[in-house]
Amino acid sequence: MELMQTFVRIVEAGSLSAAAANLGTTQPTVSRRLQALEHSLGLRLLNRSTHSMRLTADGERCYERAKELLASWAAFESELRGVDEEPEGILRVVAPHAFGQERLVKPLADYLKRYPRMHVEWLLHDDSSVQDFIAAGIDCAIQVGEITDSSLVAIKLTEVPRIAVAAPSVLEGNGPPEHAADLAGLPWLALRTYYRNEVILRNVRNGKLQRFSIAPRMSTDSLYALRSAALQGLGAAIGSAWVLADDLRAGRLVHLAPEWQAAPLPVNLVYPYARFYPARLRYFIDIIRAAGPGVLEA
Questions:
Q1: What is Dmax (Cα atoms) for the chain?
Q2: Are strands 89-95 and 140-144 parallel, antiparallel or unpaired?
Q3: Which of 142, 173, 206, 290 is the most buried (most CB within 10 A)?
Q4: 278-292 burial, b if ≥16 CB within 10 A, otherwise e?
Q5: At what angle do helices 105-114 and 279-291 cross, to 10 degrees?
Q6: Is the dihedral of CA 173, 176, 177, 183 positive or negative?
Q7: Are 89 and 77 in contact (CB under 8 A)?
Q8: How far apart are CA 193 and CA 127, in angstroms?
Q9: Nearest partner of 81 among 278, 289, 271, 286, judged by Cα
Q10: What is the pLDDT of residues 88-137, one digit of tens each?
């Protein structure tokens, strides 16, 4: 089973070195396991050169059957262990920087306290999506924004309200604008993950939309960098309300056109469809799902 698991990981990771990294072992160990499997089966499974790796016809058949056998074995083990199964091993999770540093650490801590045999690799990225969960060895991800990949299971956790803010110096002594149209003349910052050259705001009372073009003085893919630039008085910005709340209360930032907001962003827990999910992932899903509605609370 270990040899087949290594073979499947080699194929999915795309190289022996990537498979070794995902499995937490060395490339020579992975190479020896592959050779042992090929010797045991009496078949050549991979054609390898210095720069490429390709499945043989036998390797393609072995890969498909090995995936089925591994899933069946995992399901069989889980069934034998029953409801008292305690997860163990490593869970790899990708989360956005802001959420991963502040709002999701508590449910993560709850998970680790409840299951002491678990270890978690908590990987923070602000990319909108993980390109290949299996090749990267990722179990699941928390993603902000719409999910467009139909191969993923998506569980909605909450929504993030987004508001327009600026430092008092940006307003040059004037009161905060009340209408979204009055924001077009301000200098702007852009969170390029969600808006770059155009701002769209909706009136929370009547649903009317207001849109205008911007030429951002600075654009970034980091919510924290956007907040810092706004605090420096470089321009107006649209950001997650929970990140900006303390600065608004302290007067370091001003809420612009309070009756107008950008579209809220959904927060989803996502993971690939599979015939069987290991206990380490199932129990993490349960804890994060239960915490979801409260992750934006102070």
A1: 81
A2: parallel
A3: 142
A4: bbbbebbbebbeebb
A5: 140
A6: positive
A7: no
A8: 8
A9: 278
A10: 889 999 999 888 898 899 999 999 999 999 999 999 987 666 666 766 77
